[in-house]
Amino acid sequence: MPAPRIVFMPGVGADPEFWKPVGDRLPAAWDKVYLGWPGLGDQPSDPSVSGWDDLLRLTLEAVGPGTADLVAQSMGGFLALAATLRHPRRVRRLVLTATSGGIDVGSLGAAEWRATHRAARPNAPAWIYQQLPDLAPRIGDIRSPTLLIWGDQDPLSPVAVGRRLADLLPSAALRIVVGGDHALALARAAEIAPWIEAHLA
Q1: What are phi and psi of 21, to 5 degrees?
Q2: Which end of the chain has fewer CB within 10 Å, C or N?
Q3: Using CA atoms, how far apart are residues 108 and 103, in angstroms rounded to an integer?
């Protein structure tokens, strides 16, 4: 069996280095791609990127003509699910951490992040603050085995969000990191990398 292709997707911080501590702990033979989001965070702008559809295009380009596994944090989880819904046969497995997943997280106790982010990043493009499309009615169509990893100290995507996604996804398992916050994939890489390796192997 060929080594899996893993596409790592950051959140709104957009840093392609975000997932490196996890990726470095996975088998060296695995083909790893680390995405950044042009124009977000500290990433340089790209005139071809002006909205969610463009980030989805970049995701699918990274997947390539075959299949890949998507490992996604926060905002990247929305894009991972959207890519899977668009091309289900191209996404073999999913790992989602601390994401909204395109569902209504406000009703599940999530704190509002936009004002704080806008204050910290006044030059961020306005479209990232728009309401994301509601994927909830379609998430049940996803058949890719999915590992959900949540921290129990995350105000932006509380455990209730992970549980809701676990209910919606037909083939999902939820792991909870005690004391984990929104950046658990970076801060607790040594703890979660074995879970991810076992799920993707």
Answers
A1: -60, -30
A2: N
A3: 10
Query: Taking 80 as the threshold, does the pLDDT of residue 3 lie above it?
Result: no
> For 20-24, 108-112, 156-160, which range has the lowest pLDDT when averaged over its residues?
108-112
Which residues does 107 contact at the CB level (< 8 Å), separation at least 6?
Answer: none
Q: Which two tokens stand for residue 1?
A: 């069996």
- Three-state SS annotation for 52-95: HHHHHHHHHHHHCCCCEEEEEECHHHHHHHHHHHHCHHHEEEEE
Determine the Cα–Cα distance for residues 200 and 168; give it in Å rounded to an integer. Answer: 21
Tokens read off for 60? 């699918």
Distance from C-alpha of 117 to C-alpha of 125, rounded to nearest angstrom: 11
* Burial annotation 6-25 (CB, 10 A radius, 16+ → b, else e): bbbbbbbbbbbebbebbbee
Half-sphere exposure of 143 (CA within 13 A, CB side): 4
* Least confident piece of the model among 92-96, 122-126, 151-155: 122-126
- Return phi, psi of residue 5, to 5°: -95, 125
pLDDT per residue as tens digits for the range 67-77:
999 999 999 99
- Coil, helix or strand for 141? coil
Kindly report the backbone phi and psi dihedral angles of residue 121, in degrees, each rounded to the nearest multiple of 5, phi listed first: -130, 70
